[in-house]
Input
Amino acid sequence: MAMEPTRLSELARMVGGEFAGDGDPLIHGVADLATAGAGQLAFVALARQMAAATCRAEAFIVPSCLIETDRPVIRVANPALALAVIHAAFLRKPFQAGGLHPTAHVGADCRIPVAVTVAPGVVIGDRVTLGERVTLMAGTVIGDDVSIGDDTVLHANVTIYPDCRIGARAIIHSGAVIGADGFGYVTDTATGRQVKRPHVGTVRIDDDVEIGANTCVDRATMGVTRIRQGTKLDNLVHVAHNNDLGENCLLAGQCGLAGSVTLGNNVVMGGQAGVRDHVRLGDQAMVAARAGVTADLERGSVVSGMPAIQHRQWLKASIAFAELPDLVREIRRLKKRVAELEGQLPRVGGESK
Output
């Protein structure tokens, strides 16, 4: 079962926060300000939000700087993080093994513990190893020689190609494909034919990685395509062959990485951002939505635009771009005026001066 109702003071200790205000209410869940009611915890940034007549939350998580309040609160430096930790604790349930469904197919020489859930229609190839408390939901396909770590969840219709390795506590959402061939072709200039390069590498996904729905992670041409610990990929992200994504990266929906891209740790990419092949992004680099990165980025870089440039420079360029029509009109006016003035100059030797 989920966590029992808990005193606010205990929740404050859980997240390293300061408990304050009148009373020490029992909290049984988390909600937003608009819907929170008795026994529920909500996050606010301003004192007036707690005083609003429509706000019926039992208690609040607030920033450390919010001092004046008689409502029951937890003060923390990072309220959003504290709320996420508490919310997850309330929702966490112990694993209940569902076993192997009769319609699941299991290949030869597999290592499958008792404490797993393998749903209807799952196909498991030969020599597959599953860790403890693994969940494979309906229609999932696991290729030969795949290993999957403890407490990992694969949602419906995930496909893991042969020879891939998935770490512990990973979450892979519906429709994701791990280990398909990369997009690698060589043009035969004599015939114009596109010749496919063999992709004989693999994919390694480390612990605590989350991969969104319909995301694709291609196997390496040779070697490994790797996603390191704690990295999170949104829906519809494409990770090409031989990529190496560092720890705790965040890639929003429809990002695309060409082949042999390297991301450092804690890189953040906005939606529909792209990176060309063989480019390296340093630790903590940030790429704005729809930006196109064509060259290496140093640690901590913040870039926007296509091709991507430093964000501050891009902001100035965007302002200038919006003013271009007015600038063109002004230049035309000035050119016309210059021509008029030249026409008024006295002529010397038949030439205007």
